[in-house]
Amino acid sequence: MASENVYVEHCKGIHGLDKVILREIRGYSAEVYLFGGQVTSWKNDKREELLFLSNKAIFQPPKAIRGGIPICFPQFGNIDSLEKHGFARNRLWSVDPDPPPCSTHSSTRAFVDLILRHSEEELKIWPHRFELRLRVALTPAGDLLLTSRIRNTNTDGKSFTFTFAYHTYFFVTDISEVRVEGLETLDYLDNLHNRERFTEQGDAITFESEVDKIFLSTPTKIAILDHERKRTFVLRKDGLPDAVVWNPWDKKAKAMADFGDEEYKQMLCVEAACVENPITLKPGEEWKGRQEISVVPSSYCSGHLDPRRVTFTG
C-alpha cells in the first residue's frame, strides 16, 4: 500500500508561498496555494496542464493570483464597496489538520481541506463572522472536485448575504476553436452592457470578441469543447445555479498588468456561480456548493456524454 504522502504533499511554491500538491497513482495531479485557497494547476495522466495560469501571474500577496480557480466570496463582481470578487481570493487560508474522510468518493485519498475565517481586518470591511471550508479533491479517475461550505458564525444574531463563484480558468488551445454547450437559449446578464438581461440565441457559445456573461438558472452540466485538442471539459455543479462565461479578448488583455497580451487566446473562464439571487444565512446556518470537472474525448458532445460520468457520485 502506498503511503499517504504519495497523495498529499505540503511544500513551498513560488516566492516561498505554502502550497499543497495532490497526486494520484496514475499520474494526475493538482496544486493548491494556501494564499487564496486557490487551485493553480490540474494535470492529466500525460502531465498536460488543464487550467490556465498567466505567465505574468503575481505570486505576491495581497495581489490575487491570475489563473487557476480563484474563490469569489463574499461577492462576485464589484457591485458593493468590497474589493472586486471579495476578499477570499487574496487572504491566507489554513489547512485543517484533521479533516473528515472523503465521503463523496470513498476511494479518494488525494484531498486537502482549507479553512478561512473572519479576521479583525475583515470585520472592518464586512462585519460578519463566518467560516468558509474548501475541500479540493483529486479522484482516482483524475477528476477535480471542489466543495465549499460557508457557515454564519455571528454571535449577535445577524444574518448575512453573499454571492459566490469558482472563477475557473480553463486552458484551451485556441479560443476561436472552442465552443460551450449547455447554455444555449438561456437568459443571461451582460456585464458589457450594465448587466442588462438578454437571451442566448446560438446553438452553442463560440468566441470572436470579448465575452462577459452571467447565465441564469443553468443546468447542472456544462461542456467546454476544445476542438483543436479533441477534448471536452465537463463541468458538473451543485448549489450554484448560475454560470459565468468570460474572455477579455485583446484590448482588455493588454490593459491587465498580470496577463499577457496574447494569452486570451489560450484561456476561457466558465464559472459555477451564485450571483443573481444572493444567499442569506442566519446564525448557525450553512450553505454548500460544489463543482466537479472531468475531461473526456471530444468525440462526445455534451448531449452524448457517458452517463456514468455525467452525474455527481455523492
Automatic annotation (TrEMBL):
It comes from the Eukaryota. The active site is at H167, E271. One of its GO terms (molecular function) is carbohydrate binding. It catalyses: alpha-D-glucose 6-phosphate = beta-D-glucose 6-phosphate. Pfam families: Aldose_epim. Its EC number is 5.1.3.15. SUPFAM superfamilies: Galactose mutarotase-like. Belongs to the glucose-6-phosphate 1-epimerase family. This is glucose-6-phosphate 1-epimerase. It comes from Hibiscus syriacus.
